[in-house]
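User: two proteins, same treatment. go.

Assistant:
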Amino acid sequence: MFRLLFPPKCVLCKKFLSRQETDLCHSCRENAPVFCRPKSKIPFVAQWTALWYYKDTVKTSIHKFKFGGRRTHADAYSRLLGMKLQSSPCAEADFITWVPVSFRRRWKRGYDQASLVAYALSKELGIPCKKLLRKVRHTPPQSGIRKAAERRANVLGAYRATDLTLLRGKTILLIDDVVTTGATASECAKTLLTAGAKQVFLAAVAAAQND
């Protein structure tokens, strides 16, 4: 009855799904811009990956997730990300955490989008999810800054670790929605390592094509 009243839609193109389809329609499953492998390393990150490249229907889907209140996208993203990560070193992490937004941005948006993916992914992989970072300084959106050096400067010192005892010697899987230059993820990873983490992996829903 619930399915009849609220038929599920593809998380990317919003087409109604058949009973044999989950999260993605057949067309998007075949044609979505799947992320292959990173072309560049991110400082302080041992290994990283993403589900898709940030363009076309993926970009639209994530934009609705971040700014349009589509919180349920997190469940679909996490299921798909979990399948990709389950046979990788990321699945051996001790804890999952996320790149946090500032209090001001969370208050305006109503939620922290990366945390929704992180907690949902925790259930998929069976890895505890903990809030290990907090943003201590509100910063302008990275999307409005083009130069990589300026992006790094924008987030410098913007994060603090929340639990030094819990972090000591642990491998952390850091979750973000979109990776562009990697400046934000690098700063978060550096903060976690400085606080005592052994290594930091990174997984994102999408990454810029130039990565």
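Protein 2:
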Amino acid sequence: MKYIIATNNPKKLVELERILNPLGINAVTAKQEGISLADVEENGKTFKENSYIKAYAACSKSGLPAIADDSGICVDALNGEPGIYSARFGGENATDSDKNELILERLKDKSDRNAHYTCAITCVFPNGKVIQVEDYCHGEIALQPEGTGGFGYDPIFLYEGKSFGYYTAEEKDEVSHRGKALRAFKDELIKYLEDNNVK
């Protein structure tokens, strides 16, 4: 069975393939199916809403079950920013390094450095059924970037005192927001497939 993954991020595709392939599911991107999602406006107010918008659009355009995730970092002292705007924080052309430096700059006079990552995953089926999960990883913002691993905000996110920039992919999978959400999603998907006798 073929599922469309509504992402242009190759790292997200690899993570999803890892849980979908053993279930007999062939994960493909919208681009591989010749479908453009460029006109999809992520105008939701939550991670769940935005992941649903992307999955619904991909399902509607392809006629295939579609999976999308929306994730980001929420900093307590910044009133939860950048939140759903994590990918666009600092402007469309800002690099990961630019975004990290912007957060550090805005926190320089603040003692509260608590933050959490959020990941919402939605699967929309052609029959209208929806699977949706969300999970979190709580930590703190470092005083400066640490480590060269991961991507995005990982070098400034401390989990149990250690930057995600120092974690291996396997270590990060065990504790990260996306790792936990993917495991919850896998459980829900298996239940859906069994309940609906989908082979």
